[in-house]
Design goal:
about 450 residues; mainly alpha; two-stranded antiparallel ribbon; about 60% helix; disordered C terminus; Lcp-like; DUF2236 domain-containing protein; MPAB/Lcp_cat_dom
Length: about 450
């Protein structure tokens, strides 16, 4: 597909493609746009009903709750029956391999989520604008991070996409319907109507601070930027969780074998299918992913917005990470690592180049170069030797244990899945691939107890 030949406004422009299945479902439930504001009662009832989708097995022959309005019940039952099906090309062996890889990366996986995937999500101005509108994320960064983790863990844990006891499909079709609800609210009506007569949805004064009310009042220029949460943006977001993750491993000197990278891309493409992403917005090679990613970012840099929502979102994310990094010498680490992982252009887009002093940046570059040199020398003697992996584990432990696994506000997951996540995190604390000296050093920086202390 020659993506750079697409021009805004043409029928094959992915910016004008949404998700017919999910959009028609929401249209059946919410009906036409309401001049008086969003139907918050119906939306609340819908959210309550889809909260029942917790495990993949819950979707088997799923029926709506008794007493639910007939139109909503029929729409949701039709949606679940179609949305829960994996593509014919899904390869269970490759998916199983990707699950193992994610767990083997342990805390590094979480570090890349915080310092690469999420920041790259904010680079697209119009995508950042929707994220900003959907709950004023500068003040609720914790929620955004935890909501993302609540989907990634169920997908990447054992059987997440393939077993009845997994939760990846259930979480994905829930997210897919939420995307459609966001489109319906921002456009104040059915997506199909916006495409028949492209228009600018004017901004309104929000009457209330709930997510539906803020989105309804946000306004949108369909002619200029396409649909909200359109196919190009959905495909880009998918790339931030597969391509950006794998690219991040490479930049840390922890790159995977080619076959393993392909398995990881494949697994996320299966998830993309369940999320309603068109095949044209996915790729199964790193080279193809790199081209798609660069093309989308290049086009997005022409989408000027005033005020620019990207720097505040990035600053809030960095501040959240720094809050959970207790040792003062490491406070600058999140922003410096993020800059290294996402590159100069994306860092400049997000305003991250002004967050750290020049001496700190110089020390980081020198330290990172030294780590890479030691790793290269160490691997001549021990194949699994990696100081880089240790450093990112230290950061990942603090973020995972203190932000994602806080017992006072657990992730919104079924009890069984939440227990599995907890077991996995505790297992990561004593990674079998890390030598004893590395675990000892990690305990020094994280403050976590020894294995003996935890068992005693």
């Amino acid at each position: 597909m020659k993506r750079d030949s697409l021009e805004p406004g043409l029928p094959d422009d992915p910016a004008l493609h949404a998700d017919p299945l999910a959009d028609s479902t929401i249209a059946r439930i919410l009906g036409p746009g309401r001049p008086g504001g969003p139907d918050t009662d119906t939306i609340a009832l819908l959210n309550q009903e889809i909260a029942r989708w917790q495990l993949n097995g819950d979707l088997d022959d799923w029926t709506a709750s008794p007493g639910l309005p007939p139109d909503m019940a029929a729409a949701l039952e039709d949606y679940v029956a179609k949305a829960r099906v994996l593509p014919e090309w899904a390869d269970r062996d490759r998916i199983a391999r990707a699950e193992v890889l994610f767990m083997e990366m342990s805390m590094v996986s979480c570090t890349l989520l915080f310092c690469a995937s999420l920041p790259q999500c904010y680079v697209i101005p119009d995508l950042a604008a929707v994220l900003h509108a959907a709950g004023e994320l500068e003040q609720h960064t914790d929620y955004r991070v935890r909501a993302t983790a609540a989907m990634i863990f169920p997908v990447m844990m054992h059987g997440g996409l393939t077993e009845r006891t997994g939760g990846g499909v259930a979480q994905a079709i829930k997210v897919r319907l939420i995307h459609a609800m966001i489109r319906h609210l921002v456009l104040r009506g059915d997506v199909a109507d916006a495409l028949v007569a492209p228009r600018r949805v004017p901004r309104l004064l929000a009457h209330g601070r709930t997510m539906p009310q803020v989105l309804y009042a946000h306004g949108w220029d369909v002619d200029r930027v396409g649909l909200p949460c359109n196919q190009e943006e959905l495909g880009y977001t998918l790339l931030t969780f597969n391509y950006v993750f794998l690219q991040g491993l490479r930049r840390l000197g922890l790159g995977l074998e080619k076959e393993d990278e392909a398995a990881y891309l494949h697994t996320w493409n299966v998830l993309g299918y369940v999320l309603g992403i068109e095949p044209a917005q996915m790729t199964d090679t790193m080279d193809g992913a790199a081209r798609m990613f660069a093309d989308i970012q290049a086009r997005a840099r022409g989408q000027a917005r005033n005020p620019d929502p990207r720097p505040p979102l990035a600053a809030a994310l960095v501040a959240t990470m720094q809050r959970y990094i207790p040792p003062r010498p490491l406070k600058a680490f999140p922003v410096l690592l993020t800059r290294h992982l996402i590159g100069k252009d994306a860092s400049r887009d997000l305003g991250l180049d002004s967050h750290v002093s020049l001496p700190s940046r110089v020390l980081f570059v020198l330290g990172f170069s030294l780590v890479r040199a030691i790793d290269a020398a160490g691997r001549l003697v021990c194949r699994g030797f990696s100081i880089s992996r240790l450093v990112t584990r230290i950061l990942g432990y603090n973020l995972t244990a203190k932000l994602l696994m806080d017992e006072t506000r657990p992730l919104k997951l079924p009890d069984g899945l939440l227990h599995q996540v907890g077991v996995a995190v505790h297992r990561w604390q004593d990674d079998a691939q890390a030598p004893r000296w590395a675990n000892a050093l990690e305990r020094r920086f994280t403050g976590r107890p020894t294995r003996a202390a935890r068992q005693g």
